[in-house]
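Task: sequence design from structure.
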């Protein structure tokens, strides 16, 4: 049985780790996109740097495993939303000449 203090400490650790992961991902993905290397490589490098082997900003990877599982579960939804957005964008672009003012 866990006490309220233990639960609060675990929650705080997960939130801190999440903030570190989001910050590192933001920095490295932005950098790698500007270098035209791709966002996925930015995520990989960010994870390798902040993990328990190099900078040790994430001390207990098992503690944040549930957060990563949620991210993996939501990825197909994000991928599908991006495809729908691209389809709508193509449709709008194809209609744009029809609404252009006559020269």
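Answer:
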């Amino acid at each position: 049985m866990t006490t309220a203090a233990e639960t609060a400490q675990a929650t705080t650790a997960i939130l801190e780790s999440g903030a570190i992961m989001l910050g590192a991902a933001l920095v490295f993905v932005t950098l790698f996109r500007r270098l035209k290397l791709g966002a996925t490589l930015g995520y990989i490098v960010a994870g390798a740097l902040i993990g328990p082997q190099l900078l040790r900003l994430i001390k207990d990877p098992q503690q944040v495993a549930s957060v990563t599982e949620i991210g993996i579960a939501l990825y197909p939804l994000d991928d599908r939303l991006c495809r729908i957005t691209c389809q709508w964008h193509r449709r709008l672009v194809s209609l744009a000449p029809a609404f252009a003012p006559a020269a």
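The CA atoms of residues 49 and 65 lie 17 Å apart.
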